[in-house]
Design goal:
The complex is a heterodimer of chains A (206) and B (96).
Chain A lengths: L1 H45 L1 H8 L4 H27 L2 H31 L7 H4 L3 H37 L8 H26 L2
Helix pairs in contact in A: 1-6, 1-7, 2-6, 3-4, 3-7, 4-6, 6-7
Chain B lengths: L12 H23 L4 H22 L7 H26 L2
Helix pairs in contact in B: 1-2
The chains are: A mainly alpha (206), B mainly alpha (96).
Chain lengths: 206, 96
Amino acid sequence: MSTAVDSISHEHGDYAGSKIGMWLFLLTEIVLFGGLFLLYSVFRSSNAVAFHNAATELNAGIGALNTLILLTSSLAMALAVSAVQKGEVRAATVSLSVTIVLGLVFLVSKYAEWSEKIHHGIYPNSPELGLRDYGEGLFYSLYYVMTGLHGLHVLGGIVALIVMLVLLRRGAVGRDDFAKIENTGLYWHLVDLIWIFLFPLFYLIT
Amino acid sequence: METKKAEYHTVNYGTHVLVWLALLVLLALTIAAAGMGLGAFNILAVLVIAGVKSALVLLFFMHLRYEGFLLRSIFLASVGVLVIVVALTFLEVIFR
């Protein structure tokens, strides 16, 4: 009897506790990116014209496509969590795989975008940017740091998602224990959330 | 004694798809708004739309709508920290 109670309280505490832990981690992520967004806002307010000129060179079409990819991957992730909670392992496997593939597509697209910019001589401390207004250099430094840090988060998220896929196939994640996949989902949605702000700030406001 | 499950809420597939559709409409809207050349209002418009999009992601995909006081507070605390830091920084920048 006492072991039963122990296991109940343990199970309950474990689930609620793991989610609290995950949200505390997300808090630090929000503040981390928030600091960078603040840096962007301050530099933009003092270099409005240069930021305007620099932003027109970014391809808003690719930015919109990347947004579409991430929003859809978030849908697939949310569906995967619901499927695991319902015990539909097959549906969960499919949606989790779609999430991973869309994450990889996002990274490939980002790679193509960066390559194109670097090919045109636009990278931090490049001679090309040295000829331009100081503010344009600031804009592109922020662009590389913020989309780069975001890209690393996507990469980390993909690794976590692959681990979840393996655990799901092994039965270590399922209807009775879905805290891990739910928390991975929270992380993936946060990465999507950050992109929701990166897209308009870098690609749309010109 | 029955094993008591921790409380959780399973969101329907249909709800998720509807949220995704709303997000796509908002994405189209933000691109349209940015293309209209509204000047300073432009920044406000895309930021408000981004705010609505993130609210949808937080409430439905991230389950905040179904969570209790504690998890909501943790999220609001992070927003609160940001608001304070942003406000103090801009006070300094504006009145420098």
